[in-house]
Amino acid sequence: MRRKHMKQIESVGIQGVGYYVPDQVITNEDVERLTSVPAEKVKLILSVDERRWVNDDEALSDIAVKAGEAALKDAGVSPEEIGLLILGTGSSDFYCPPSGCQVQHRLGLKNAMLLNINQACATPIFCLSTAARFVADGTYKKALVICGDISSRFLNFSENLLAGALGDAASAVVLGKLKDGYKGFLSEHFDADGEHFDASGLFAFGSRIPREEFGEGKPYPIVKNEKMNFLIPEIINWFRGSFDICLERAGLTKDDLDFVAPHPAAIPQIYMQLDSAGISYDKNLIVTDKIGHSGGGSMFIILHEAREVGMIKPGSKIFCFGNGAGFNWGGILFRWCDSSEFAN
């Protein structure tokens, strides 16, 4: 059954998309020098050839600004037209203040209200849903959503292989109101399960003390393999559950979809998610092998690159899914809109 609120946000679509990845390329040979793990093993385990890391003079706000500029240009929208900025990240420049304040100022978004959101790797899905509501109800005419993470600043090269998996990037979309008769966002589903919240995360810098069991004094991500091995099948189930619910709510079948973007972390996990729903690999585009997993920064990059190679076109129906530490997850199904379909 269609939820009533989906009728409202159907009137909102993605008007532009852009991204920024740093120019510093880290190869598997570089990872070998840092971790002593042979380059061939890095490739075998992660299926990643290279990843991008920021330079010493770059922070989250820097790459977010560049992604935002690219999305605004792609949409043909001026900074003054943006009424809402949402910055989604788990790696802000500082613990406080939030980086969105800098990004809003540097992009010249003089008329924009600001939200900072952290849903870990699931952030883009939650940000899209939040922004769409503000545009749909007329509070703001246009919204800019920027999501990104800089993981290379929080790596321990001696304790785990995350150095080979993670990259840095930011990506962005502009949301706008559609003309009467056109549809953008079609359905969504969100859920959470905090039972195994400590399976992975960065358990430092917070207010919880003592926290030795969560990695006190270790300013880098912790992954508890014994829990993650148990949770990986659950992650696949979360994807499949959101996928099926979104299709049902939109009144569609999987054959109606033109493009499916599962949670873009480990490449084998991407294929497992697609397999669980019986989705052909040619309805997905992988970028993780060239940029690494950039947390919340990856999703809109996938959409941009898929559009560039003709996998996404006006009218294409797309399903995106993300899950993040905690755990929380969500899926969103939408139609790709032509520039002529937007009201202004």
Strand order of the largest sheet: 1-7-6-4-5
CA(first)-CA(last) distance: 31 Å
The succession of helices and strands, N to C, reads: HEEHHEHEHEHEHEEEEHEHHHEE
Beta-strand fraction estimate: 15-25%
Q: Regions with pLDDT < 50 over 5+ consecutive residues? A: none
Q: How helix-rich are the residues, as a percent range?
A: 25-40%
Radius of gyration: 19 Å
- Report mean pLDDT, rounded to a whole number: 91
Shape: globular
Tell me what the structure shows.
By secondary structure, the chain is α/β, with parallel strands linked by helices. The chain has eleven helices and 13 strands. It has a five-stranded mixed beta sheet, with helices on both faces. A four-stranded mixed beta sheet has the order 8-13-12-11, with helices on both faces. A two-stranded antiparallel ribbon has the order 2-3. It starts with a helix and ends in a 9-residue tail after the last strand.
Which descriptors would you attach to this protein?
344 residues; alpha/beta; 13 strands; 33% helix; 22% strand; globular
What's this model, at a glance?
The chain has 344 residues and is an alpha/beta fold. It has eleven helices and 13 strands.
What secondary-structure arrangement, pairings included, does this model have?
Layout: H1 4-9, E1 12-20, E2 24-27, H2 28-35, H3 39-46, E3 50-53, H4 60-75, E4 84-88, H5 100-106, E5 113-117, H6 123-136, E6 142-150, H7 162-165, E7 168-177, E8 185-192, E9 200-201, E10 222-223, H8 225-250, E11 259-261, H9 267-276, H10 288-291, H11 299-308, E12 317-324, E13 328-335
Parallel strand pairs: 4-5, 4-6, 11-12
Antiparallel strand pairs: 1-7, 2-3, 6-7, 8-13, 9-10, 12-13
